[in-house]
Write a structure and sequence with these properties.
With 385 residues, the protein is α/β, with parallel strands linked by helices. The chain has a domain at 4-117 and 209-223: 3-Layer(aba) Sandwich (Peroxisomal Thiolase, Chain A, domain 1). It is built from 13 helices and eleven strands. It has helices at residues 22-37, 52-56, 61-69, 85-98, 118-125, 141-156, 164-174, 188-193, 257-270, 287-296, 305-310, 327-331, 338-351, and strands at residues 4-11, 44-48, 75-79, 105-111, 196-198, 201-202, 212-220, 233-242, 279-281, 364-371, 376-384. α1 packs across α3 (61-69). The protein is globular and about 55 Å long.
Length: 385
């Protein structure tokens, strides 16, 4: 398998883009990545998306976008893995280029979620859960995460306010990201007074949806020396793992076994230990998921992920910098696009492009994208060379 480099990246601001169509949002990110890569054509297009058939009435997004951006006759396909669709599309492209089947690929994660009423979007998001044994019983996606968070608090003795640092850190970092949806600082007091969604999850525990797209161009590393005088960023590790789709079927609902397995495989492939990770873009769709991800990936002991936030270790100057561009919580969570935003943001860190939230000396970064409540989890490790 060939070593793969990320040659170009692009993204759009996450927002309610009433004035832009699905094709325009995805196209804008694709054109930005192609321009950054200095390329006009690629051999194949991979699109990560979850909701387009239900929310936009559009399927066959591979051809849909290849037509819009002028990649006629090229291979083009959509990849779906719920909220992990972006990373799943990236891994699909990665394997195709690494195997030598193609010489270049454009990966676009895209979602347009705000054209439908909230009730319809909530129902569409619930398709990431088990239709027969969860959705049919009336539980929502946020409800599932609320059950997990409540049990975690009970088992390990944490208070709701103890989760505040995850939200505070994400919002502070988003202040310096022009592509982030939310530019508003959060305090512990504001966190605790936020409106309740599903006890104990409140608005500031939960990530906002939105419209957005992020993209990357990948090629064999041998074709890249540096990108505009900046370090070459290569994919050092890539892995995907699954768990039961229904939370109640898991041996331990408070442990993300798919995160553990995919991280373990990615560490081994990259030849690194968790202590060598300089920046970690985790999947903080809800604050409880941030804590569980830190634990599953080895950065904290069981039940102690919250402590890293309380001790100030998750900021850009901390020992485990997470969500350095705002994370899902403040950058936003356009579900099928989120995994690609994470990849783009790790590349920015390794290129030294993050300004106020730049992690000093960042050379190795990790992105972990979660589909459902931990059912599908992909981990990618990138290195600056």
């Amino acid at each position: 398998m060939r070593k793969i480099a990320i040659l170009g990246i692009g993204q759009t601001k996450i927002d309610e883009h009433w004035e832009l169509s699905l094709r325009e949002i995805g196209g804008n990110a694709a054109f930005a990545a192609m321009q950054d890569a200095g390329m006009e054509r690629v051999d194949a297009l991979f699109v990560g998306n979850m909701l387009s058939p239900m929310v936009n009435g559009q399927n066959q997004l591979g051809t849909f976008f290849s037509d819009w951006i002028g990649l006629w006759r090229q291979e083009a396909v959509k990849v779906e893995a719920a909220c992990a669709s972006g990373a799943a599309a990236f891994r699909s492209a990665l394997m195709a280029v690494a195997a030598g089947d193609i010489e270049s690929a454009l990966v676009v994660g895209v979602e347009k979620m705000t054209d439908k009423p909230g009730r319809e979007v909530t129902s569409a998001l619930a398709t990431a859960a088990d239709a027969d044994y969860e959705v049919e019983q009336g539980i929502s996606f946020v409800g599932l995460n609320a059950l997990i968070m409540r049990r975690y608090m009970h088992e390990f003795g944490w208070k709701h306010a103890d989760f505040a640092p995850f939200s505070i850190n994400a919002h502070e970092n988003a202040m310096h990201n022009p592509f982030a949806r939310l530019h508003e600082r959060v305090t512990v007091e504001k966190f605790e007074k936020s409106g309740m969604v599903a006890t104990p999850i409140n608005l500031l525990d939960a990530s906002p949806i939105g419209d957005g797209a992020a993209a990357a161009v990948i090629v064999p590393a041998e074709r890249v020396v540096s990108v505009k005088g900046k370090p070459r960023v290569v994919v050092a590790g890539s892995a995907s793992a699954t768990d039961t789709i229904a939370v109640h079927s898991r041996k331990d609902p408070l442990f993300l076994s798919a995160a553990y397995e995919s991280a373990k495989q990615a560490y081994a492939m990259a030849g690194v230990a968790k202590d060598e990770i300089d920046v970690f873009e985790l999947h903080d769709a809800f604050s409880i998921m941030a804590a569980l991800s830190l634990e599953a990936c080895g950065f904290a002991e069981r039940g102690q992920g919250v402590r890293l936030g309380l001790e100030g270790e998750i900021g850009p100057k901390g020992s485990v910098p997470v969500c350095t561009r705002g994370g899902l919580k403040a950058r936003g969570h356009p579900v099928g696009a989120t995994g690609m935003y994470q990849i783009v943001e790790v590349v920015q860190q390794l290129r030294g492009e993050c300004g106020e939230t730049q992690v000093d000396g960042a050379r190795i970064g990790m992105a972990q994208n979660i589909g459902g409540s931990g059912a599908t989890i992909l981990t990618h490790i990138l290195k600056a060379e």
